[in-house]
Design a protein that fits this description.
Blueprint (H helix, E strand, L loop, with lengths): L1 H13 L8 H20 L13 H8 L9 H15 L5 H4 L6 E3 L5 E5 L17 E5 L3 H12 L14 E2 L4 E2 L1
GO molecular function, one term: DNA binding
InterPro entries: Integrase-like_cat_sf
């Protein structure tokens, strides 16, 4: 494939037309890539079976585990993190950019959550976060109870981040 691309590229550069005006270059290169992808797929390469999500039984098994029972701050945090991953679809760095103010209580009892997606917004900053998707956490008593309990534990003058750093209670310092 690189040799074919190189041949087409050199042929295009040798012509007097600029790349912007030479539509044929992009059509030809597209055909080469398309053919190569089909060839590799026929050989058995590629993503045939995408990532398998968790089944309902697996989700229940995780939620019923003793480390997710909401009895301690750590287990509550783990449960909220799991809910954010499952219900909001948060991945990797998207958890970092969640802010407490992004969770707005609805009149119907659920939460509206503003999500700033990392794939479409690479410049996510605290002050300038761009456009957001609005997702709705369902009005399920178990789910809402967990979020309300978690948000109620936030100190009043804390950082805006949704996930806060643990403090050492004896010394009042961050761990």
């Amino acid at each position: 494939m690189p040799r074919e691309n190189n041949r087409i590229y050199k042929k295009t550069l040798a012509s007097s037309e600029s790349l912007e005006k030479n539509v044929n270059f992009f059509c030809e290169i597209g055909k080469v890539y398309s053919g190569k992808i089909k060839y590799l797929t026929d050989l058995g390469y590629g993503e045939k079976n995408g990532a398998n999500g968790l089944s309902n039984e697996e989700v229940q098994q995780v939620l019923n585990h003793h480390l997710m029972d909401r009895s301690t701050p750590q287990s509550l945090l783990k449960r909220v993190f799991f809910y954010n991953a499952i219900l909001l679809g948060s991945r990797g760095g998207e958890h970092f950019y969640l802010m407490a103010e992004d969770f707005k209580k609805c009149e119907g009892g659920g939460y509206d959550v503003l999500i700033y997606r990392s794939k479409t917004n690479q410049r996510v900053e605290i002050g300038n976060r761009g456009k957001a998707d609005k997702l709705i956490l369902p009005n399920n008593s178990d789910i809402i109870e967990v979020y309300e309990k978690y948000l109620s534990y936030r100190p009043q003058l804390s950082e805006p981040n949704f996930y806060l750093q643990e403090c050492d209670e004896q010394n009042g310092e961050q761990i």
